Structures are given as structure tokens and as C-alpha cells.
Amino acid sequence: MSSKNPTQRGAKPVPRAKAQKPxxxxxxxxxxxxxxxxxxxxxxxxxxxxxxxxxxxDDTRAKLIRAALTVFSREGYAAATTRMIAAESGANxxxxxxxxxxxxxxxxxxxxxxxxxxxxxxxxxxxxxxVRLASGAVTPADAKDMVLFALKAIAHVLLVxxxxxxxxxxxxxxxxxxxAFEMLFSSGMGRMLAxxxxxxxxALGLAPDDPETRARAxxxxxxxxxxxxxxxxxxxxxxxxxxxxxxLAILERAICANASAIxxxxxxxxxxx
Length: 273
Description:
Elements: H1 31-75, H2 82-89, H3 93-99, H4 103-134, H5 140-158, H6 164-175, H7 181-204, H8 211-229, H9 231-238, H10 245-272
């Protein structure tokens, strides 16, 4: 008598053996491999979420700084309100309190942002001048050339249209200094002024700590500042409606020509005394 094929119709299926579940307290055969992967995935997910959270916070803070820079520049500190800044940034009013505390702290943050940006723009030129001065072999002619180099670097920072908002706040701090002025002066501004004084002293054979030397360095800086402080009058006189890179090049040539003539005349005067 032949046995029935279990795959034939009507035949009862052969029951499959049930998988053995690991008993409590005993690890299954794959547990050692699965657990590290699962834990790693959880840690990676948590790290990714933390990174995303930090990015959102950084983006919101930067957005508030940019908006505050615009509003403080346009309205002035007294007239600017946190409500204006929140509206400009697209963030809610509570975000200012969360990230900065209030209007005074936000203004400090804006000025620090300007100081950091100025330092970053000025640093390459200032570093190059300091390296040259450290060599100890700087002639009056070399010093004059470096004065012109420094003035061009300052013009590139203060006269370009991208710095319009910075400039308004810097000028207000010049006319009515607040506690934030120290941030500006101790940044690239103060560093470049100190270098200008040293260069003028070498170019004219004067003592760097003499008030006359410092006054002459500031007068040379004024060759740049006039085009920022009297921007509207300068544009009207020159027949320009804006100050682009081509116009900036013309101003730089005029600034350098005037500064060079002043240093030459002063040098001849010092030699004649």
C-alpha cells in the first residue's frame, strides 16, 4: 500500500516546528548583534535632532541680529522697538527675550556683530602691516606706502554699500558713545588706527606717542571718512546715484593721492625744521 504524498489534495499539512522564544533572562541567538545596532540608531537619531535644534536656534538668532541691525540703523536706538525688530525678522516677540533678554542686550549683540565683521575684513591688511613692521626694516618711503595700503583697506570696509547699516550705527556711536562703543573701538577700528599712528610716525620721523603724530594719523583717516559721513553731498557733487566698485576705485585714487601729498609735504616740513 503506497503512502500518500502530503502535497496531494486532502492530505493534512505537516505542522511546522514553532520557533523557540528565549526564556526570560536568556539572550536569543541574535540579540547580541541587534542591540548595538538599535542603540546606535537611537543615538544617531538623537544627535541628529540635537544638531537640527542647534541649527534652528542659530538661524533664529542670526535672523534677529540682521533684523535688529536694519531697524537700529534706520530708526536709531531710542526710536527702535522690539516689536519692530520682531516684525522685521518674522520671529515672534518672545524670541527676543529668549535669545537676548531685551532691547539693550540685542543692541549689544548687533554692535558685537559689526565689530566682528569689521575685524574679519580688516584683519588681512592689518596682519600684513604688522608682519612688515615686525621685520624692523621699514623706511619712511615704505611707511608711506603702507599708510596708503591701510587707507584703501579701510575704504573697502566703510565705503561699500554693503556697510551702509553698519556705518549709521558706527557714526551714532561716534557722536553719542554708549557702552557698546568699546566693542567697536577694540575691534578692527582701534587696531588699524594704532597701526596708522605707527606708520605716520615712521614716515614723518615723529614719536608715535606724540599727540601731533596721532592727530596727523586721524587727519589722514578723515580722507576716507568724509565720503561716508557726507555721502549724500559727495554723490551729488560727483553726479553719482550710487557708490559701486568702479566709483570706489575713483575715490581710493583720490584718497591715496591726497594722503601721499600730505605725507610728502609734512615730511619735507619736518626735514626743514
